Please model this.
Amino acid sequence: MAITGSGSLATILFLFMFQAALLKGAAQDPDGFQNLVTDNVSVVEGEMAIISCRVKNNDESVIQLLNPNRQTIYFRNMRPLKDARFQLVNFSDNELRVSLSNVSLSDEGRYVCQLYTDPPQEAYADITVLIPPGNPIIEARDEVLSEGNETEMTCTAMSSKPAATIKWMKGDKELPGKPKVELTYDKMYTVTSRLTFTVSKEDDGVPVSCIIDHPAVKDFQAQIYLEVQYKPEVKIMVEFPQGLTREGENLELTCQAKGKPQPQRVNWVKVDDDVPSHAVITGADLYIENLNKSYNGTYRCVASNTVGESFDDYILYVYDTAPSTEPAAHDSRAGEGAPRTVDHAVIGGVVAVVVFAMLCLLIVLGRYFARHKGTYFTHEAKGADDAADADTAIINAEGGHTNSDEKKEYYI
Model:
């Protein structure tokens, strides 16, 4: 930068003479202790930078500010440099503070705070101009993905200073990228980060974000949403009955299938056998009337789309007609529990044993009573076997009629 505008040679000579006089005065007081300090400045391109030259224990020595080309910007409170972007913010014996508006990359460099002592003191303020990157750009190799496949994305942050840092997020999970930094001809940095990962069905609709970390910007990011296709998810629902499946009852199953794209085909099959001929299949529904045990088996619902196919199984076990006491409900799902039956052969065996025991008991009692059954004779009948006829038997009966009143027998 050069002195321009209305500055004249006379003014320049005056300044030089003035500086010489100050230097001479400072040389006459060499023991004065003074400390000159300043600060480095980082500023975003287009914004304002503040340069502050501060003195401790100043003995009225002159402070001036020089640009990187060592041209005087301010001498005390005067601005020889005709650049209106420099403005005096504060001037006192202890500070010279100057603002620089609309900073550009050409303003970057080392500025000099100078104090006219003997010898002169200098302090340096480095102005660093920060240039934010352009809007980040995400490019995806695939617009539509299938579950289990690998995809690749790139994110680019162009023309920044210093180089930006790129971070990847999938939902709330950070993913590692592979960055590449390039220095362009205009001393700017372009950073490209490459991300590779495998998608699942849970990633459908999840945002992937490219987040730029740079001192000149905050919350700078780009985002895209994943579109992932996946094979159907299949589940069989029992509409009827709610408890056990028994003979004579009806069975109604519904196949729920969800996928992306939505399944176009839903089929019912019976594993290792044919579906009963009178079964009614309407879309995703299977209906069987008047169940019997010949229908036992595994019924499978199969759904498919362009990605693949999936299935769910239902194990049907038909129980006997419901007894008086209802057992606990059982869901005939594949892999869930096993049918519980009553062994009718055991019951029949027990009944047969009981009947056989009763018959044996009756036979024993009959033989017992038959053995103790006999003919009982009274005393009047004694000798009857030796009589020729009935009259003789009566006459020969012991005691005859003469003793009939005296001898009596009772049979109970």
